[in-house]
Design goal:
alpha/beta; 14 helices; 17 strands; elongated; binds L-homoserine; 11-stranded mixed β-sheet; 438 residues; binds NADPH dihydro-nicotinamide-adenine-dinucleotide phosphate; 36% helix
């Protein structure tokens, strides 16, 4: 048993600052929970002069990364710099020195996770990544431990705080997309490259991590269909509202006959459904297990302290394992490496769902029947049609809700519809409907 667990932290940005704050301010409580103190021994950042709004003991913050990695007293290294190559090297170097690692870096884990997990498993070390999905929501521990008894038939989540913040501002305050994004960036929610948030890539990374843990399979992110919110307009949000729905960026994974359907895209969901109540930076993940039934986890999906909470929870778990000599007890991939099997991710064209289609059309007799004809020729049945206003001189929106149809048929029909001379201005907008949440 050690009398103290020493921590090294690399990256004192948004999450690093939140993590350091929690480790310092909740020091006594955490020491009682672990049984010994957790000592924040070294912090490394490229910039050691900027005021982070946190009082650090003198000499704690340096730019000396080798000094941290080579310090034999440090038990756990926390990587919070983001990005791929340097972050991966820090984690592998730390493990090569026998140190456990904690990270919030979902991009790295989704793309290079196998290297990190394999290195940890071989060395009998722990890797904590609770903060990588859902910010402060304890979803990783839920998947690896709390729900381990279950076959998980469905995981549907609002996984990106920035995108949800933008959609919420567009709906509630009629804000422009760019203004809402700037506010999310100022609050520290957005990624260094905010296109990751907006284009669905960050949600893809998080979904890939969850699918990996839930189904015991490596996931190639290229196999997961991904579409962001960049084409969602205020007009679509308004029409959704008239239809009793809201637009959310969802990460969806469903188990079907030993295959997994995994996709990220904006979706229309019923305004009374639980996920529709998730606003602003909040995330939520709705899981269905064959034994437990429905479970919903909800909380702040980004930000310094919520994410720091998840990082520190990993540090505490690992510190407890060190004290009980139980490191490696829970495989980082949830399934031991030799129990993982590749599972086919269903290609998107095999999906069937309902669709919201908005065409900008010339307001002339016969246009609706032409479009309906194309949809009918491809076996797509119309559920309802909405057209408001009359503007003979300019294009008007024609909104069509379909019954359940195949993605392949809808995409083929849209290619034909977009070529019609009466369909003008822009390609038809397509938003999938997620109406089962299971
Ligand atoms: P920030 O950009 O705010 O912080 C990163 C910090 O690391 C910066 O201070 C940066 O310094 C420093 N840094 C970069 N490279 C190095 C290096 N080679 N050595 C030492 N320090 C370095 O990012 P966040 O805190 O927002 O994100 C950190 C990680 O957490 C990312 O992986 C992100 O995806 C993840 N995450 C973030 C969440 C959030 O709410 N922000 C939520 C969940 C996960 P400098 O600024 O000088 O470059
Ligand atoms: N940029 C991410 C988000 C941070 O907005 O959700 C949390 O992972």
């Amino acid at each position: 048993m050690k009398s103290c667990i020493d921590i090294g932290l690399v990256g004192l940005g948004t999450v690093g600052t939140g993590t350091a704050k929690i480790l310092l301010e909740n020091r006594d409580l955490i020491a009682r929970r672990v049984g010994v103190p957790l000592e924040l021994k070294r912090i490394v950042d490229l910039d050691v002069t900027t005021d982070r709004g946190i009082a650090l003991p003198d000499g704690l913050l340096t730019a000396d990364l080798p000094g941290l990695l080579n310090d034999p007293t440090i038990d756990i290294v926390i990587e919070l710099i983001g990005g791929y190559d340097t972050a991966k090297r820090i984690m592998l170097d730390a493990m090569a020195q026998g140190k456990h690692v904690v990270t919030a870096n979902k991009a790295l884990l989704a793309v290079h996770g196998e290297d990190v997990f394999t290195a940890a498993a071989r060395a009998g070390l722990d890797v904590g990544f609770e903060a990588s999905v859902g910010g402060g929501i304890p979803i990783i521990h839920a998947l690896t431990e709390g729900l381990a008894a279950n076959r998980l038939t469905s995981i549907v989540g609002i996984l990106n705080g920035t995108a949800n913040y933008i959609l919420t501002k567009m709906l509630r305050e009629q804000q422009e997309f760019e203004d809402a994004l700037a506010q999310a960036q100022a609050a520290g929610y957005a990624e260094a490259d905010p296109t990751f948030d907006i284009q669905g890539i960050d949600s893809l990374h998080k979904l890939a991590i969850m699918v990996n843990l839930a189904y015991g399979t490596p996931v190639n992110v290229k196999d997961v269909f991904t579409e962001g919110i960049q084409h969602v307009t205020a007009l679509d949000i308004q029409y959704a509202s008239e239809l009793g729905m809201v637009v959310k960026l969802l990460g969806i994974a469903k188990l079907h006959d030993g295959e997994v359907e995994a996709r990220v895209h904006p979706a229309l969901i019923d305004k009374d459904s639980p996920l529709a109540q998730v606003h602003g930076v909040y995330n939520a993940i709705h899981i269905v297990g064959d034994a437990v039934g429905d479970v919903m986890l909800y909380g702040r999906g980004a930000g310094a302290l919520p994410t720091g909470s998840a990082v520190v929870s990993d540090v505490i778990s690992i510190a407890r394992n060190i004290q009980r000599q139980a490191c490696g007890r829970v495989p980082p991939t949830s399934f031991p490496l030799d129990q993982r099997v590749p599972i086919r991710i269903r290609p998107m064209e095999e999906l069937t769902t309902r669709y919201y289609l908005r065409c900008m059309v010339l307001d002339r007799p016969g246009v609706l029947s032409q479009i309906a004809g194309v949809l009918g020729n491809h076996g797509i049945s119309i559920m309802s049609v909405l057209q408001q206003g009359r503007h003979e001189a300019q294009a008007v929106p024609l909104v069509i809700m379909t019954h359940r149809a195949s993605e392949r048929s809808v995409q083929t029909a849209l290619k034909e519809i977009n070529k019609m001379s009466s369909v003008v201005s822009q390609p038809t907008t397509l938003i999938r409907v997620e109406d089962e949440e299971r």
